[in-house]
Specification:
Protein name: 4-diphosphocytidyl-2-C-methyl-D-erythritol kinase
Keywords: ATP-binding, Isoprene biosynthesis, Kinase, Nucleotide-binding, Transferase
Number of strands: 12
Pathway: Isoprenoid biosynthesis; isopentenyl diphosphate biosynthesis via DXP pathway; isopentenyl diphosphate from 1-deoxy-D-xylulose 5-phosphate: step 3/6
Enzyme class: transferase
Bound molecules: 4-diphosphocytidyl-2-C-methyl-D-erythritol 2-phosphate, adenosine-5'-diphosphate
CATH architecture of the largest domain: 2-Layer Sandwich
Number of domains: 2
Number of helices: 10
Largest sheet: 8 strands, mixed
Structural class: alpha+beta
EC number: 2.7.1.148
Length: 308
């Protein structure tokens, strides 16, 4: 009997998300500056007769258990490449909010790939794993790599970024999720409605902010706070106006920066240090503007195998 294999994978926040025009293939070119943070899902792979998914955690009921689960799709993709059957039980211990703009499904896909590769002895190269990740979803390569990175293209073409320190974050988790495609569609709709147009010819090419990359490199939280931006934030706020009160509650409590995490609806608050993070978290919890509050820090390492 082969021993189960467990992979641990971090969530992410986008400290910059610059969104270009709508491409003919339905995606948007990005300058996506990812920072991995210390909320994790764990994926455990155990030999089984057929592919089976189970999930535990507060949001477990919102995760599909069929072949559409991103962890299942990752196992199938790896098995197909190596001419084996995806005969595995994948158990997901879910701590990353579902449909929250923190790449939880992507984390599960990256974790399933690593765990299945170890369980089956497929010995896929790093390049092969990154290739499978990019095929499955734009954010999945970053879940594998972790740390901090700039994502170009639709977010899958990664350049690792240097970070000079630890950044302290508070996350306000909302009731219910937001659909990523719906938020991109709303971003396009708002651009059209403003008269500027939403196509690649209408929107400037997205570029990373030099001030933001500098702040990451030097570990300067105040400078990072001044440089964070998210082009999807107006769209997330348009679809979920109540998020404005969440952002305001964190800002009023002294957060250095308040922004929607990716496509939302999770809101992210950058704090000066752990004490400031505690104060922001306390105020958010008392504000009644979110379901739950999490304190963590980044950068966090990417997907890795752990002892079960
Ligand atoms: C917005 C971001 C920011 O990191 O993540 P979340 O905040 O949702 O976690 C990502 O761009 C989400 O990446 P991911 O969730 O992997 O998206 P995918 O599965 O590749 O694509 C889902 C859908 O989102 C839209 N999409 C995604 C990426 C991109 N660069 N342009 C897009 O327009 C497309 O409509 C696509 O069909
Ligand atoms: N393993 C998984 N965990 C979470 N969601 C998943 C998973 N597999 C597929 N999904 C689907 O992907 C959608 C997006 O989930 P998630 O990746 O958590 O959010 P986001 O794209 O906002 O970061 C969910 O609504 C869910 O239906």
């Amino acid at each position: 009997m082969t021993r189960p294999v467990t992979a641990r994978v971090p969530a992410k926040v986008n400290v910059q998300l610059a969104v270009g025009g709508l491409r003919p293939d339905g995606f948007h070119d990005l300058a996506n500056v990812f920072l991995a943070v210390g909320l994790h899902d764990e994926v455990t792979a155990t030999p089984a007769d057929t592919l089976r998914i189970t999930v535990e955690g507060a949001d477990a009921g919102q995760v599909p258990l069929d072949h559409t689960n991103l962890a299942a799709r990752a196992a199938v993709a790896l098995a197909e490449r190596h001419g084996t059957a995806p005969a595995v039980h994948l158990h997901i211990a879910k701590d990353i909010p579902v449909a929250g703009g923190m790449a939880g499904g992507s984390a599960d896909a990256a974790g399933a790939l690593l765990a299945c590769d170890a369980l089956w002895g497929t010995k896929a190269t790093r390049e092969e794993l990154l290739d499978i990740c990019a095929d499955l979803g734009s954010d999945i390569p970053f879940s594998l790599v972790g740390g901090a990175a700039l994502g170009r293209g639709r977010g899958e073409l990664l350049t690792p970024l240097e970070t000079g320190g630890t950044f302290h974050w508070v996350f306000a988790v909302a009731d219910g999720g937001l659909s990523t495609p719906a938020v991109y569609r709303e971003c396009d709709r708002l651009r059209e409605a403003s008269g500027a147009g939403a196509g690649v010819a209408d929107v400037p090419d997205p570029e990373p902010s030099p001030a933001l990359l500098d702040a990451l490199r030097t570990g300067d939280a105040t400078a990072l706070a001044a440089a964070v931006s998210n082009d999807l934030q107006p769209a997330a706020l348009s679809l979920r106006p109540a998020l404005a009160a969440t952002l305001r509650a964190g800002a009023d409590a002294g957060a250095l920066a308040s922004l929607v995490s990716g496509s939302g609806p999770t809101c992210a608050f950058l704090a000066k240090d752990t004490e400031a993070a505690q104060a922001v978290a306390g105020a958010l919890a008392a504000s009644g503007t979110c379901r739950t509050v999490r304190i963590t820090s980044g950068p966090a390492p990417g997907a890795r195998l752990v002892d079960a």
